[in-house]
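Field reference: sequence -> structure
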Amino acid sequence: MRVNDLFVKLLGFRSITPDDAGSLDFIREYLPEYEAVWKNEGGVKNLFLYRRFGDGVHLMFAGHVDVVPPGEGWLSDPFVPVIKEGIVTARGAQDMKSGVAACVQALKDTKDFDGTLSLLLTSDEEGDGKFGTQIMLEHLKSIGMLPEYAIVAEPTCDRVFGDSIKIGRRGSVNGTIELTGRQGHAAYPEKSLNPIHQIANILPQIAGIDLDEGDSHFAPSKFVVTDIRAGMEVTNVTPGKLKMMFNVRNSTKTSTEDIERVIKRVFEGMEYSLSLSQSAKPFLTDPKSLVVRKLSRAIESVCAIKPEYSTAGGTSDARFLAQFGVPCVEFGVINDTIHAPNEHTGLDEVEKLYTVFCQTIKNFEELS
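Structure field:
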């Protein structure tokens, strides 16, 4: 089977989070030379495959087989791949069965390596990830099998295949502020304390502001208001409480403590409560790291383009690898239709991605 045959085969699995729909069993059978470790919990399947060729470096590829629900607006069955003029349309075409196919085929076709090659796949990346990649990483740590380097095959390219790899990700902090006032009659505003009026005066000090100046790798951490609600949907009663929800995609320069200090300053003198939760922590892999250099060299060789290093976008399972101290980088096909109806990617991109991964594995055989 060639890489694009494998790609189309994987697209046919209706693997909506957290159901792998049998795709992980298929991949396990497709790589019989590799030892398998399963870690299944909470209705989620996690598969780790490894092959020890020698005593050298342990390089791991990682990804997910689950996809988001297809939604409406499709011109064809989202789980029956349609190929037209070299373009494949199906749910997961970009995010990320293209990447899974490329790394699986690269591992299958590698016959010699001075070290260990492995693959970690989960069926819970598009969900909350509670029982996904991090569960397997905890197990690998307990048995001394954490990799030295990792490549996550998420879609990363912007306009042209090969133009971007991710060497880090911003974190994500979710927050809720509940502002307490005093309910009253709209005709007697002086007898009440309207939290809408309170927040209206200070909103420009917080909504959309930059919490840091960013740096050469990260954009500034921005305070983004996502929801404000108060009142009883009547015109003659002023509300007694207001709830505001927000999100901060934070760089390594802004922490939850920094966010809390800003809110304390802005809301000084008001009665409020604050809850903050960090669903993902920011991380940055050193651009001089071996995995960044080896992958970049492979991309330049295959695509004749020097990739830019990016930390933009949402979160991925690379954040868990970073938490376990594993230098990781992300690289995959062009990202422009993920999660959208009629998600699609080019067969030529998948072929090139496979070739890049094969070349990266060869590059790890070199000392520098």
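Note: The two ends are 33 Å apart (CA to CA).
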